Amino acid sequence: MSTDTASFKEHIEKGYTFKKDFIVLGTAMLNGEPVPSTHVKVPLKTLNRHGLIAGATGTGKTKTLQVIAEQLSCKGIPSLLMDLKGDLSGLAQPGELNDHITWRQGQIGIPYAPEPMPVELLTISNEPGVRMRATVSEFGPVLLAKILDLNDTQEGVLSMVFKYCDDNKMPLLDLKDMKSVLQFSMGEGKEEFVKEYGMMSSSSIGTIQRKIIALEQQGAEKFFGERSFDVEDLTKVRDGKGVISIMRLTDIQDKPKLFSTFMLSLLAEVYSTFDEQGDSDKPRLCIFIDEAHLVFSEASSALLDQIEAIVKLIRSKGVGLFFCTQNPTDVPDEVLGQLGLKVQHALRAFTAKDRKAINKTAENYPISAFYKTDQILTKMGIGEALITALNEKGIPTPLAATLLQAPKTRMDILTTKEIKDVVSNSDLARIYNEEIDRESAFEILKEKVERASKEEHKAELERQKQKGEKEVGRSRASKKSEKSFIEKASQNTMVRQVGRTIFRELARGILGALGVKNKR
């Protein structure tokens, strides 16, 4: 490989000279040494073409993410960061100068100026922050079916449930609402469902219920509900700086289903809400997904298809997606092929499988006359990375081994008190942390079932009353008949007694007359 520093510098400067505004990630390196002021830049215009930040544990991926988010904020571009490890909250506080940072920034040719960034802390779990929620209705049957990994038949059943709720003005706000409608469809409301929408398989309904319960067990009940988060609130600018929204996800690392559910719903909401931006000079919002393998490892094929479609389409809304993971192979090829910016930190080659992965990774980068990519991938230090971006014409820039800038903000987490201060000073927290539980499908169906039960009880009492009256009538008729019989019997007895009396008197008269005659 060439070791001519002058030609290398000319090569880099030619490839990274842009007419429009840009961010500076660091300075290019040759033979392991930085070439001062040979800046590696990324045009703002191309940041909605998405990106990748990859590398082994401990190579500086998170700090690179931090640097990019800072630079975007200083350019007035807001961003959303998925913080699964809990080490991005330091963006809210200024960094501290030390000897290593002084050397690094001196090599790059940019003075170190620590400063805090405007930050909002968000949460979908028990972490302190602005609560992000979405209703089941906002998901809709198609997206919810993909998240639950339902087959076509089960998705059809789910669509009928949504249609029933729409027709009967029953809001589906949370999972409690969905479960109550499913139970109603197989119980008190079965006849109504069959009459209006046809038969629904009990096994399909049972499957949907089980999958909803599995989602609940990962904490999804905290995510579904009101007040729904307005994604426009992710695009705030404060004092000329884009607000950095940090989604605190440290307590759901072992709940990939919940994480992927949240991510897909958020991307779908952004895509459906944001206006078409066209070919603008800078993105409207950048979203960074740390530990991106969690999104893809548990995703069904239908969910992956949905993610791929959104990645392809969402850039027209002025939104850039950046996936942060250990190895590029963690990201599906269909998604990887859509990524314009690639920041590749060092990889480790401990096994034959690792070496194959490194060779495959090297093939994803432009061929360079100055680097053997597969070799340099294992030799870079912390805070160094191979970078290629897109220029303003959409052409990949030359591959550059880069000494990255140090973050301007704290390279550590906030204290508990600092976190509380950020949340307590947040206008969004006062809006979205209010608990709301308005009347929805659960309450409406509960009232409907109770009303039907009362009407059934009332009808039963009426039936019992009528039955009692009939019994009383039959009893009276029986007594009357018995009385008539007794009276008749009594009359017959009297007749017989009178008859016997008359007969006796006649007999006595006749016998008496005969006796007198005989005496004579």
Taking the sheet with the most strands, its summary is: 12 strands, mixed
Strand content: 5-15%
Low-confidence stretches: 513-520
Q: What is the CATH architecture assignment of the largest domain?
A: 3-Layer(aba) Sandwich
The CATH class assignment of the largest domain is Alpha Beta
| Average pLDDT metric | 84
The span between the termini is: 179 Å
Question: How do you describe this structure in short?
Answer:
It is built from 17 helices and 14 strands. It is an alpha/beta fold and 520 residues long. It folds into 3 domains: 5-132 and 228-432, P-loop containing nucleotide triphosphate hydrolases (Rossmann fold, 3-Layer(aba) Sandwich), CATH 3.40.50; 136-220; 452-520.
Give a structural overview.
The protein is α/β, with parallel strands linked by helices and about 525 residues long. It has three domains: about 5-130 and about 230-430, P-loop containing nucleotide triphosphate hydrolases (Rossmann fold), CATH 3.40.50.300; about 135-220; about 450-520. It has helices spanning about 5-15, 60-75, 100-110, 135-150, 150-165, 175-185, 190-195, 200-215, 255-275, 295, 300-315, 335, 350-360, 375, 415-425, 425-430, 440-520, and strands at about 20-30, 35-45, 50-55, 80-85, 120-125, 130, 235-240, 240, 245-250, 285-290, 320-325, 340-345, 385-390, 400-405. The chain is elongated. The chain starts with a helix and ends with a helix.
